[in-house]
Amino acid sequence: MIFYILGSLINSISIIAILSFILSKVSVVRQLISKRKSNYIDKIIFSIFFGILGIVGTYSGMPVDGALANSRIIGVFVGGLFGGPFVGMMSGLIAGVHRWSIDIGGFTALACAISTTVEGIMAGMLSKKFFSSNNKWLFSLFFGAIAEIIQMIIIITVATPLSEAINLVSIIGIPMIIANAIGISITIAIVNSVLKDKEREGAFQAERALKIANETLPHFRQGFNIETSKKVADIIYEMTSFKAVALTNRDIILAHKGEGEDHHFAENKIKTDLTKQVIYSGKYKIANNSIEILCKKDRCKLKSAIIVPLKEGEKIVGTLKLYKTRESSISPVDVKLALGLGSLFSTQIELRRIEEHKELATKSELTALQAQINPHFLFNAINTIVSLIRTKPDRARELLLHLGFYFRKNLYKTEELVTLSTELEHVKSYLEIEQARFGDKLDIKFNIEKNLEVKLPPLLIQPIVENSIKHGIMNKLEGGEIIISAFSKDDMTHITVEDNGEGIEDKKIKDILSGNINNKSIGLLNVHKRIQLIYGSEYGLNIKSNKDMGTEVSILLPKGEVII
User: Fold this and answer.
1) Which residues lie across from 312 on neighbouring strands?
2) pLDDT digits (tens, 9 = 90+) for 495-506
3) Which helix (H) or strand (E) covers residue 483, if one does?
């Protein structure tokens, strides 16, 4: 009889084990089990899940002398070990009340209901020790056997008459203790494998993301642009299973690799509403069909995508888009990988910005130092002052003061902000010396809005004025005029330096703003880059020029305070 009951219980355990295995493959169940911290909704779902396993154990049992030899405890005990006291108690109540309700007034109905709840609570109390155990299946085997012994004691204590209870326990006790302890251990191994699968999956994705980040780092160090984005897209495409990879800035597609690259071209405007939403909100979005991707090309095979933001600090500078060719095929694994890559790429972009800021700060400081000891400017200024010492000593004295003021202001640190009036005083000191050299050939006009208050980085305007004199006015025999203007409009500060000199060719303007210049023209480039680093890439120098007619260089700055 004992071996017959044991065989029946093993069949019951097999059913529960198979059911546990199948349910553990359901994504919702896998996510729930693998959560490190669960809220009460999760715990309630957990309780129902393991309570149902307990009910299955009841129905798969066999009748023995007015009672049931069953495996109800397996689901309840496993739930308590994984979910803690709340889940253990609730799943025990669910399975225990069910056992009582299907045999109200039965010989062992009440005893089984009580014992199931007690065993669930016991498992919940053991949960912390279970998770800290190095050998979880052995832990669950040992305490599962103790739990079944407790159940036998409760049956003898609660069930009446006592003689029948003792007789029942003598028949079902050993088979249930052995079988259910083994069943608990097997189920623990199945559920625990889900956790290990998730850990392995997470480790694999983390390793792959780090490998991609390692490969892309040298490219992001060169900036976030069309050329580097193409190389990054190639790397992601080769190292993942995505059918297409794209990167954008805030306005255009920077690169597209894979399916659809015959019509998703770099420099095309961003058209997908989801991409614009990601840029606006800073939160990732998933496109589940071609309509959401919004590709107007017939027969485009791209059917789903995940779009994650790329950040420079707190500012959204673009997106990473990973595509698949089946609808609704973006899995949780894909989401984790995309978010990981987005985070790593954002860090790389931010590090590049910091490096570039340091590099340009160093170049600006070197330029300032060179200006302090620039022999041509210094010798010309000294010669001009010497020539005036006898004939116009007061003027010579005035120029010496301007020269001292000019060099003193050049010592401002690049991270300090100065008022517009202070910056203009520095420009005027420079111009006083230049006007003393060129006389009537150099006509300077200031058009500054009254009471205009704005702070800006030092040495922004003087290099522009110097460029106008050296490369615009000096080459004209008749000289020329420079107009320096500053005014506010639409909560922005506009600063312009306009001359009627020789002008600049369009190609040279592009070279200046792109950095494709020689060291002699580094002044304008440094001003342009410093403005972009401090205020954002949408700011910088705007240069308009016509050959033999003159040049206008404009600076657009926000009126609010900035931190460098």
Assistant:
1) 315
2) 999 999 888 888
3) strand 480-489
Q: How far, in Å, CA of 410 to CA of 482, rounded?
A: 22
Cβ atoms of 553 and 496 within 8 Å: the answer is yes
| pLDDT tens profile 17-67 | 666 666 665 555 555 555 556 677 878 888 898 898 889 888 887 788 777
Q: Which two tokens stand for residue 327?
A: 């609808």
> Do residues 185 and 74 touch, judged by C-beta distance below 8 A?
no
Element (H, E) at 485: strand 480-489
Compute the Cα dihedral for 362, 365, 371, 375 and give only its sign.
Answer: negative
SS3 551: strand
- In 3D space, the residue among 181, 104, 168 whose CA is nearest the CA of residue 142 turns out to be 181
- What token pair was written down for 510? 């592009």
| Model confidence pTM above 0.70 | no
Q: Which residues pair with 83 in a beta bridge?
A: none
Q: What is the dihedral of CA 127, 133, 136, 139, to 10 degrees?
A: -80
- Strands, DSSP E only, in 313-350? 315-324
**Rounded Cα–Cα distance for residues 1 and 315 (Å):** 74
Give the tokens for residue 260.
């659809």
Bond before 457 cis per omega within 30 degrees: no
- Distance between CA 104 and CA 108 in Å, rounded? 9
Q: Which two structure tokens, joined as six digits, stand for 540?
A: 């910088």
